[in-house]
Specification:
778 residues, alpha/beta, Calcium-transporting ATPase, cytoplasmic transduction domain A, Calcium-transporting ATPase, transmembrane domain, 5 domains, eight-stranded mixed beta sheet, seven-stranded antiparallel beta sheet, 29 helices
């Protein structure tokens, strides 16, 4: 084949340029990354922004200019959201260059490497095992097995020979072919499907879904409540246009947790940036959140626990008749074989190529069969593959068993003398030689596996290798439960595989379909599963996992479909990945209760005002100060703290439950002050001032609770938040339309705050006791 293709010219440079001018170039790109225009549009044109700007317009037309200060928060939210998203996009694009794909083509009689975008119609392309097909092609010579699961959903490998079509988006699982490009760009059969497969599968975000639920609820109630409150003020209380709009606007603004969406985005983007600094490419921002809930991690052996840098350690020739000419036999096999996985690379590095024996027919190695073969004129057929797949158990040499027990990867060379190659049936084989291949355990693998287990992550090792070998490698890596292993090649049904998932830790001789079944069974039993992989045979399982993690040194297929890529191919960074997810979710959950306090009490007070026709007690500028000083300032800094604790409970119920106590206290205090003020004949400014100062105090209690247990940063945040907002309220009292606490209102404030603190502490202690927590668990 080599000689034949030396004579092939492929396209000339002139022909290439002509096709490019005709638009027959594979430069079509469905850019999955947002454009700057789309990012700006998505951050501006939201339901939250629409409602806030609608309220702002109403305030502007009635001349309530001071109450438009909340627009600053909206604009900052939009600006930061746009900046963070553009920054994250640019970072991902920059790092993605590491995984950029190229392809080998024949042009003007030479094999050259070009970017896949440079392909044109009629280009002759050389594609090998492990590579993704970049464009629709017709095989013109060679033989391979293609995995089209990402296109058709069918997981069986499909044999491709001369005249067959290779679809863009499929992957070669074995073999090597020369193929002619027949479609490019948008004309490719699977442009849309491959775009999805190359980047990531959609991930459901609990945080985003929770915000959508709140948005949907507020959008349903905010408009009718706003209209009712305005009509009551304007027509029943005769408050005038301006006062009616200001009062109803304050009620509506309070129900919108303006900063929470931004906080989630910042927390996730911070995670992307942190992981990028540790050489971890995040291709889906929300996969960081998914990682927080992972309780089961499926590890591939080769390239994950081990370094993936295989080396032939020992060769034992078993057949006396071929002892002298063994180097020529293995050299001829390597010269004729198109296999080029990491195991074959190690063998090629160890032996010299030879042209001593001419090949009649070749069969590439397949991860399904676990062997490949070459038929030679003078010898018969030589097979290379897993020993137990080539000979019966009683024929296995002792050297094979010993090597496997020591954790080495073992391949056998076997021969069927004077026997033609038959793909459908295997003749009786005589062991020719045993190859011991070592793949060193990654540095710090023991500590990493032990640490993950201590943190509640259940570990399972899945490999296509012999289970004894895999088990002993797991033992050397310090995996708990390494002795619990099984050979899945003995399993005939999916039900058997699913049952084995619950009984074993190490799985050997696993097919790509069985890997996917293992992940599915774990997910069906309510586990959140992350999977690492580096080969084409991991693609199906990686797609199935809740979070897929690929090694950059692995096949392009795994990199392109994974949520995260370890750019240094070092699985010992996995704790950083898993715990970054926990940090994001735990911190957002903790501070979200501060944001939801205002949403809850604004809704309750609005309903009370609707039924009593009393004006809403606060105005927009007062709510804005709460947004800035109590919600934005401490929550922003708290969201950056490290938090490796396991995630417990659901985000929205937890956040609403934590916020509800303080929200109810606010409502109770407002009602109490209203009644006291009416009884004591307080002026309007005295009543409003007392209500607002109590609102600040109760909101600060939520900040202090979020800061528990204290550390220097949290003490600083608590003190500056409490002191800062009261100082701001006094400095800007005229703008806020409040006064100062006087001899009448100060004692009432002190007593009511003391009662609030005692009630909150009692309820908090009761909640902790009921949940079995201590203050350290906050």
């Amino acid at each position: 084949m080599e000689n034949k293709f030396d004579m092939k010219q492929g396209l000339t440079q002139i022909e290439v340029e002509e096709r490019k001018k005709q638009g027959l170039q594979n430069d079509y790109e469905e850019n999955v990354a947002k454009s700057t225009k789309d990012i700006i549009y998505d951050n501006v044109m939201t339901l939250f922004n629409f409602l806030n700007f609608a309220i702002a317009i109403c305030l502007f037309f009635v001349g309530a200019y001071s109450n438009l200060a909340f627009l600053a928060i909206i604009l900052v939210n939009m600006g930061m959201g746009i900046y963070q998203e553009i920054h994250a996009r640019n970072l991902v694009q920059k790092l993605s260059i590491v995984a950029k794909e190229s392809v080998h083509v024949i042009r003007e009689g030479k094999e050259v490497e070009i970017d896949t975008k440079e392909l044109v119609v009629d280009d002759i392309v050389l594609i090998s095992a492990g590579e993704q097909v970049p464009s629709d092609m017709e095989v013109i010579e060679g033989k391979s097995e293609a995995n089209e699961a990402l296109l058709t959903g069918e997981s069986d490998l499909i044999e491709k020979t001369e005249g067959d079509v290779l679809l863009s988006g499929s992957f070669l699982a074995s073999g090597q072919v020369y193929a002619r490009v027949i479609h490019v760009g948008a004309d490719n059969y699977a442009v849309k499907i491959t775009a999805e497969a190359k980047v990531h599968k959609p991930i459901q975000s609990e945080l985003v879904n929770s915000i959508r639920k709140v948005s949907k609820f507020t959008s349903l109630v905010i408009i009718p409540i706003g209209i009712i409150l305005f009509l009551e003020g304007f027509m029943i209380r005769d408050s005038g246009m301006k006062a009616s709009v200001v009062a109803s606007a304050a009620a509506l603004l309070g129900m919108l947790p303006k900063g929470l969406v931004l906080l989630i985005s910042i927390a996730l983007t911070t995670g992307v940036v942190k992981l990028a600094k540790k050489r971890i490419l995040v291709q889906d921002m929300y996969s960081i959140e998914t990682l927080a809930h992972v309780d089961t991690l499926c590890l591939d052996k080769t390239g994950t626990i081990t370094e993936g840098k295989m080396k032939v350690q020992k060769v034992k020739v078993m057949h006396a008749n071929y002892h002298e000419n063994f180097p020529q036999i293995i050299g001829s096999y390597l010269a004729e074989s198109t296999d080029n996985n990491i195991t074959m690379q190690a063998i090629r590095d160890h032996f010299d190529l030879s042209n001593r024996y001419g090949a009649i027919k070749t069969l590439p190695f397949s991860s399904e069969r676990k062997w490949g073969a070459v038929e030679f004129k003078e010898l018969g057929t030589v097979y290379l593959g897993a020993p137990e797949k080539l000979v019966t158990a009683d024929q296995l040499p002792n050297e094979v068993v010993e090597a496997q027990e020591n954790g080495y990867r073992v391949l056998m060379l076997a021969i069927a003398e004077n026997t033609p190659l038959d793909e459908k049936s295997m003749p009786h084989l005589e062991p020719l030689a045993v190859l011991e291949i070592d793949d060193p355990i990654r540095q710090n693998a023991n500590e990493t596996l032990a640490y993950l287990r201590e943190e509640g992550i259940d570990l399972k090792v899945i490999s296509g290798d012999n289970p004894v070998t895999v088990s002993n490698i797991a033992r050397r890596a310090g995996l708990f439960g390494y002795e619990s292993y099984i050979d899945l090649s003995t399993m005939e049904t999916e039900e058997e595989v699913r049952q084995a998932v619950h009984e074993y830790t190490v799985f050997g001789r696993v097919t790509p379909q069985q890997k996917r079944t293992i992940v599915r069974e774990l997910k069906d039993n309510d586990h959140v599963v992350a999977m690492t992989g580096d080969g084409v045979n991991d693609v199906l399982a990686l797609r199935e996992a809740d979070c897929s993690i690929a090694m950059a040194e692995g096949d392009g297929a795994t990199r392109q479909i994974s949520n995260l890529v370890l750019l240094d191919s070092d699985f010992t960074t996995l704790p950083d990945v898993l715990f970054e997810g926990r940090r994001v979710v735990n911190n957002v959950t903790k501070v979200a209760s501060i944001f939801f306090i205002k949403t809850i009490y604004s809704f309750i007070l609005s309903m009370i005002c609707v039924f009593t026709t009393v004006a809403f007690p606060f105005i927009p500028i007062q709510i804005t100060l709460i947004d800035l000083a109590i919600e934005g300032y401490p929550a922003f800094f708290l969201s950056f703290e490290g938090d490796k604790r396991r995630v417990n409970g659901k985000f929205l119920p937890t956040a609403l439950k934590n916020a509800s106590v303080n929200a109810v206290l606010v409502v109770a205090n407002v009602v109490a002050v209203y009644l006291i003020g009416a009884n004591q004949a307080f002026t309007q400014i005295e009543t409003t001032t007392l209500m607002y100062y109590l609102l600040i105090g109760i909101s600060c209690m939520a900040v202090i609770r979020a800061c528990l247990p204290f550390n220097p940063l949290r003490i600083f945040l608590a003190i500056t938040t409490v002191g800062g907002i009261y100082v701001a309220a006094m400095l800007f009292h005229s703008i806020l339309e409040v006064g100062f606490l006087n001899g009448q209102t100060l004692p009432i404030f002190a007593v009511m705050m003391l009662i609030n603190i005692i009630v909150r502490i009692i309820i908090g202690l009761f909640q902790m006791k009921r949940a079995g927590k201590t203050i350290k668990d906050l």
